[in-house]
Amino acid sequence: MNTKIYIYTVLLLLSISSASAANEVKPVKSPLEVVQLIGDKLIRETPFRYRLELAPNSPEFNKVKFVNFGRSFRYNLPAVAYAYTLLELPKAMEFEMELEHNDGCKIWLNNQLVYSKDTNRDIHLVFEERSIEMPYKVKLNLKKGANTLLIKSQTNGNKNWCVYIQPPATKGAVLNESVHYPVFTLASIPDVDKSIANLTNWLVAGPFEPGLDVVREPEKGLAFGSMYVGLQNQPVTWTIPRVEVLGNVIDPKEWGTNYQWNYHNGGVAWAMQQLSEASGNPRYNEWATSFCEYHLKGKPFVEYQVKTLNEFESANHYFIQVPLLDFTLAPALPFIHKLIAEKEFPLKNNYREFIARMMQYARYEQIRFPGTNVYTRTTPRKYTTWVDDMFMGIPFLVQASRYAKTPEEKEFFINDAAKMVLGFSEFVWNKDANLYMHANYSDQPDLKLPHWSRANGWGIWATTEVLMHLDKRNKYYKPILEQYRKHVQSLARLQAQSGFWHNVLDRPDSPEEVSGTAIFTLAMARGVTYGWLDAPTFEPVVLKAWEALTTQIEPDGKVHKICVGTMCSEDVNYYIQRPFYEDDTHGLFAVLFAGIDVHQMLQRKK
C-alpha cells in the first residue's frame, strides 16, 4: 500500500472511543461505506407512490388561477356561465391581469365592465421556462379593501371551457422585487360559510342559454336561496366549482422530495447507479430503477393532472412540457446511464423513446446564445447564461455521445460538450478571480455576479465529465484541461482550514457548506485519479475536504449543511443568507459521488 494512503487510513479510519473504559479502538467507515449509509437511508425512506389529497387552494393572487367550467358543468354545447369572487388588498393599486379563455368572455370589477371579447377559439397556453404566457391583458383599478370580480364565460361547444387569469409573469427568477398581490376570498361575502372559502376561491352559476351580450340574473348580483332559469329551462343556482383530488408525493420537504422530477433528484438516481457499481450492491441500482420507472409509468397521470385538471404545479409537473435543462437533460442522466450499462431490462423501449426525445431536445430545441453553441435561458432576462447549465446540459451530451448509434451523432455530441465547456467560460468565467460567476446577463455583460460555491461546482463537475470521455487527441482537450487546472488552483487556495469551502467562495464571512465542498472533492479526486493533477499536492486537499464532509454525515445517513436551491442575483448577501437544509438532494447526490470518487482515488495504486 502507498505510504500516504496507509497514513491516511490509520488517521481517518480509526477512532478512539473516549467513552470506552477499555479504550477500545473502533474503525471509522471508509468513504464508500460512509456514502452507503446515505444510500441505505434513501432506500428506507423513499416510497415512490402518490398520496391523494384535495387540490390546494391558495388565496394569494401570485400565480395562475382558473375556473374550469367544463369540469364543473360537464357540458360541451353552446352555453354561458358565471364565476364570482372578491379581491382584497390593504391599499388601492393598479394591477395588470393576464388572461386566456376559449370563445367569449366578459369581466366586471366592482360592477364596471373592464373586459369584453367575443371570439370563437381554442385555448392556447405557452409554457415557458418558469412561466405561462397568456395572450390578453386587462388593467384592474383596485380599491382598498374588498373588490367584486364577476366573470362571464361563453362556450361555443368547446370541450376545454375554461378561463385562466394570472398576475404579470415574473418568470420565476426575479429577485429583490417587492410585489404586493391581491388576495382571493369568499370569506368576506355575507352568508357564505368560512369552510367554503377553505375549499375554493370561486362561486359559480350556470349553465345558461348562450349569448354573451344577453343580460342574465347573476349579472344583477348575488342571490342565495333562490333559483335562476338556466339552459333548457333547468333551474340553476350559485355553487362552487368541482373540487379536485390530486396525487401528491408523500411527505414533501421544504426543498422538495427525493423522488420528485428535478435535476438533483435525477442526480441522486444517477449517483445510486454509480454506488451500486462501486460497491457491488444491487439494491442501489434497484432504487435508481424505481425512480426512473415511477416517472415513466406515472407520465399519463401527471399529464392528466396538468392538462385536464389544469393543475400546473401538481406533483412532478416539470416532467411535462417545460423547456428548461433542469427538467429535461439533467434528470435524464439515470435513464441514459441504464441504457448504456445494461443490455436488457423491463421497459427498455420506454427508456429508449424518452432518451431519443431528450437527444432531439439537446441538439435542436434547447435555447442557445445566438452565434454560439452555449446553452442559455430566458430567465430572469432573455439570454441569461447560468454556469449551472454546464452541469444541467454537458454531462448528458457526454453520455449521449457514448449512447449514440452513428459516428456522426457520437462526434456531434462529444464535440458539442467540449466546445460548450470553453464557450461558457466566455460568459461566466471571471478571469481576475479565476472563478465562475453564477450567471451573466446579456444586457449587462460586464456585471460581475458573486462566486457562489455550488455554481462553481456545477462548472467544474461538467468539465471533469468531458475530460473523462474526450479523446486526448481532440483539439479541445488541452484547452479544457488548462481551464480545469486554473479553476482547481483557485479552489485549493480558498479552502478553509476546516476543509470546507464557503458558500460564497471568496467571502469567509459566508457559511461553510456541504454541496459545493462535495463537488470540489469529487472534481479534485478525479484529477488525482486520472492524472490531471499532481497527486502529492492535491491528494491532501481532497482528503481534508472528505474528512470535513464526514463530520456532517450522521450514522443513519442524514446529511447536514446543504444550501437550498438558488436563483441568480448580483446581491452577494442573497447568497450569504440562503437557508441550509438537512438531506436536500442538491447535496446528497454530490456527497454520494464524492465518496465514490475519493474511494476510487484511494484505490488507484492498490
What can you tell me about this protein's structure?
- The chain is of the alpha+beta class.
- The strands form 10 sheets. Strands 5, 7, 8, 12, 14 and 15 form a 6-stranded antiparallel sheet that branches. Strands 4-13-6-11 form a 4-stranded antiparallel sheet.
- A hairpin with an 8-residue loop joins strand 1 (14-16) and strand 2.
- Helix 9 (388-403) packs parallel to helix 11 and helix 13 packs parallel to helix 16.
- It starts with a helix and ends with a helix.
How much helix is in the residues? Answer: 25-40%
Regarding quaternary structure, what we see is single chain
Quantity of strands, as a count: 26
CATH topology of the largest domain: Glycosyltransferase
- Rg, nearest Å: 28 Å
CATH architecture assignment of the largest domain: Alpha/alpha barrel
Number of helices: 16
Report the top-level CATH class of the largest domain: Mainly Alpha
CA(first)-CA(last) distance? 6 Å
Largest sheet: 6 strands, antiparallel
Q: What is the number of independent domains?
A: 2
Name the structural class.
alpha+beta
What is the residue-averaged pLDDT?
92
Beta percentage is 15-25%
The low-confidence parts are 1-25, 171-176
